[in-house]
């Protein structure tokens, strides 16, 4: 993240998806399931953009909710 406190990434088999990692408490939190596509941080250090199929979504690091940006 731009603030240096978190990582966003992907993982593969057996259950692929996207994760947030916190350097502050050492926890991983899953924010989507499916084929892994590398996320990109937004400047606020709270949201990431990622693609799923033909859609672009934004995920919230705090709530783990995603919403479509482009479909």
Query: pLDDT average, as an integer?
Result: 93
Helicity level: under 10%
Question: What's the assembly state of these chains?
Answer: single chain
The tally of strands reads 7
Q: Which value, in Å, is the CA radius of gyration?
A: 11 Å
By secondary-structure content and strand pairing, the structural class works out as mainly beta
List keywords for this structure.
71 residues; mainly beta; 0% helix
Give a nutshell description of this structure:
With about 70 residues, the chain is mostly beta strands.
Walk me through this protein's architecture:
This protein is mainly β. The protein is built from no helices and 7 strands. It has strands at about 5-10, 15-20, 30-35, 40, 45-50, 55-60, 65-70. The strands form 2 sheets. It has a 4-stranded antiparallel beta sheet with strand order 4-5-6-7, with no helix packed on it. A 3-stranded antiparallel beta sheet has the order 1-2-3, with no helix packed on it. The model has no long low-confidence stretch (mean pLDDT about 95).
Topology, please?
Blueprint: E1 6-11, E2 17-22, E3 28-33, E4 40-41, E5 47-52, E6 55-60, E7 66-70
Antiparallel strand pairs: 1-2, 2-3, 4-5, 5-6, 6-7
